[in-house]
Structure formats: C-alpha cells, structure tokens
Amino acid sequence: MHISRLAADNMALIPQEVRDALGLKEGDPILFSVRDGQAVIRKAPVVDTVYLRSLEGSLSEWTSPEDDEAFDDL
C-alpha cells in the first residue's frame, strides 16, 4: 500500500511503484472511478481521436439539447 497527500491545489502524487504497475508516464490520461467507497485509478485506453472526429458528423442526429439531457446520467 502506498500513501500520498492531497495538496492545496487538489493534486496528489502517484507513487512510482503504482505508475510502473499501471504503465503510466507523464501526460498519460488516467481514469478515476469510485467503487464501494474506494477510489480506483486506471490508465485510460488509447483513443483514436482522428477516427472519432471522422464520426462526429455522422452522429449529428443525437446532438440536440434534449438528447444531452436524456443521456446526461448515463
């Protein structure tokens, strides 16, 4: 188990052993979730932003304010 402190600017250091175990390096996106009162961190999967941007125009039927509201809590 490793301990880190939350700084005044709401930042915390991730211990080297944890970074190594997750394969994290500077600039990597990290996913946070809470399960059963415990925080879980994971390395975010690589996302093909070029591919996602190419899909953006084809998904325009789901971009209304009503859609945003309907899917807000998913």
From TrEMBL:
SUPFAM superfamilies in alphabetical order: AbrB/MazE/MraZ-like
Cross-referenced InterPro entries: SpoVT-AbrB_dom (IPR007159), SpoVT-AbrB_sf (IPR037914)
Lineage summary: Bacteria, Pseudomonadati, Pseudomonadota, Alphaproteobacteria, Acetobacterales
SMART domains assigned: SpoVT_AbrB
An example Gene Ontology molecular-function term: DNA binding
Protein's organism: Roseomonas genomospecies 6
Segments forming domain SpoVT-AbrB: 1-46
Domain of life according to the entry: Bacteria
Pfam families registered for this protein in UniProt: MazE_antitoxin
Record key words, sorted: DNA-binding
Classification via NCBIfam families: lp_hng_hel_AbrB (TIGR01439)
This protein's record includes keyword Ribosomal protein: no
Name under which the protein is recorded: AbrB/MazE/SpoVT family DNA-binding domain-containing protein
Entry keyword annotation includes DNA-binding: yes
Gene3D superfamilies xref list: 2.10.260.10
